[in-house]
Amino acid sequence: MGIIEVHNVSRTFTVRTRAGRLRREKREVRAVDGLDFTVEEGECVGYIGPNGAGKSTTIKMLTGILVPTGGRLRVASVDPARERVGLARRIGVVFGQRTTLWWDLPLRDSYELARRIYRIPDARYRANLERCVELLELGALLDTPVRQLSLGQRMRGDLAAALLHDPQVLYLDEPTIGLDVVSKSRVRAFLREVNTLQRTTVLLTTHDLTDIEQLCRRVMVIDHGRVVYDGGLEGLHAAGESERTLVVDLAEVCAPIEVPGARVVRTDGPRQWLAIPARASAAPVLAAVAARYPLVDLSVREPAIEDVIARMYSSSEAHPKGATV
Amino acid sequence: MAAKLRLRPPEPGTAGLYLAVARGAFRRYSTYRAATLAGAVTNTAFGFILASTFLALWRARPGLGGYDTTQAVTYIWVSQALLVTVAVWGGGFQDDVQERFRSGDIAVDLYRPVDFQGWWLASDLGRAGFHLLSRGALPVLAGALAFDIRLPTSVTVWAVFLLSVLLAVVVSFGLRFLVALTGFWLHDSEGVRAVMLVVAMFFSGMLLPITLFPGALGELAAVLPWSALVQIPTDLFLEHRTGGAVLGALGFQLGWALALLAAGRGLQLLATRKVVVQGG
Questions:
Q1: Are B276 and A67 within 8 A, CB to CB?
Q2: What domain count does chain A have?
Q3: In this predicted structure, what is the pLDDT of residue B104?
Q4: Where are the transmembrane segments (chain B) (predicted)?
């Protein structure tokens, strides 16, 4: 049994819009529709989707602050909406754009408060704090008021605050938003450590796909309230029908190259760009080109994960699955 | 299902948490020293203006409202001391909660295994403790130097006064909590707060002792919760109410405090249910 189980979960909101002077029309909007997935203990899953896809709604339901309209939901074997307070002691939540730290007081005070809120035994609290301080390099910041911390420092502070009580599940909503490259890699290294050594289950929502590439072996893509892809990162290329690009430099300007298994997507003087399916081998195409055209130089470009996902979003845009009723 | 959303009353063993929250709030307000000093100076300046006005009024109409001239001047200084301590104009935790509604951080509060009302009550009591020492004691000291005012000589009266101030803060919290929670429905409780400010100014005894209000208005003002904010603690300080009336006054404050906390708890339940069931 998975630590997070979501079976056919849906959530509709009633939106009132003005229709005429006094008349208001009620409309049902389905934020999440027939959501189905299971997350096993110790997994690190990337949860991505365009704005408005239903990511936040899912997180809210998983933490129990929103009741699903239909379906069945379990986190650590309990129904989150029924046991919100009890569950809150066993999960950690970090929002990149929100803070749970006490703004005007030193970082240390917020941790002391967390110790009391989550009733963390003294020995465990000391050990966890020490570990977080070391891994997140917070030592010099403990006595600094939170309002004086930089965004990256504050984010690291928030991460520590969410992990002092050894949560079984950690929900992260854009944990690296607005951070510089160094801060990002520090946060990622810490999360990797928490996930692999502590076996903490992580559900990570982000728009930064590097987060996913570096942390998650599994990724779920949600769009219009449904999971449109669930699997390994590599599989995304196949699912998204992504293509590799072969950049070919010829000795002279030629007509667009015509070889089996490739098509020209762009030409610029003697240089031509050929698209080939990501899973196909480039060798036969290369051989065909070299045999028939005056080849001077070439390079192969791997598909960017961003492009793959962008294509996935836009293709589900073309076939909306009853997002609105 | 609704029954399962019930908010549990604070569990035993959480006293340490709420103490820590109150201590944190006290320290938090104490970090802004310049603002505190500026505030205390403002209270003192208004104390001077109003005390001079009352002095002139009571010289013309001695014994007005049952206060002698010294009591009337003292009334001004004590009410100035209570203004910010009791948050007659609103504020304190209310500013924090309003800000959390505006920024959306209010959602984070629901992720934490803490009682919302208990958390903010503790925070507001910590704040009030700091304000009593800074915005309360300093102006009264200044007033005592410049005017002939009457300070209680008995330890019992001081103790009764401090207890009454504590209850006044809780009553004020109860009222402000209800106003702040309207944010769940109105998104911004600023409008409700502005109305409450005027009502509180008038009915708390901040503007004029409500014993000066004529007839039915005076009787109404005496039973509304706002009289628990300024009028009652000040009267106890002035020993304007003595004997059995002291217990009556404290009982009145306690009654309103409990009633308002209970109403706040009910409204909090409705608000949580609305968020959880209808979406924020």
A1: yes
A2: 2
A3: 79
A4: 37-60, 72-93, 132-151, 157-182, 194-217, 245-264
